[in-house]
Amino acid sequence: xxxxxxxxxxxxxxxxxxxxxxxxxxxxxxxxxxxxxxxxxxxxxxxxxxxxxxxxxxxxxxxxxxxxxxxxxxxxxxxxxxxxxxxxxxxxxxxxxxxxxxxxxxx
Length: 107
Fold this sequence. Notes:
globular; Serine Threonine Protein Phosphatase 5, Tetratricopeptide repeat; 5 helices; single chain; 0% strand
């Protein structure tokens, strides 16, 4: 992984969060929702390419929160379960704990 690109996945995730959490509107509109999803998907792809599983999990959590807000709980649960199942250590990570709580709440 190139040192000048080590934050790329997180930058895309944050851009998606900004689109998702825009405080000017109570409900997320279709354009901002599409932008947020594209940013999260790109962050996930970059993290995978860089073998940065923790960043992939964080971006997936952001995507799952977006999908939950859109009522896409089935897709959200499948996506989150996929990355969550790839972890075999690091159970003290806040993101893993959040993933477990979200998965349990979607069952």
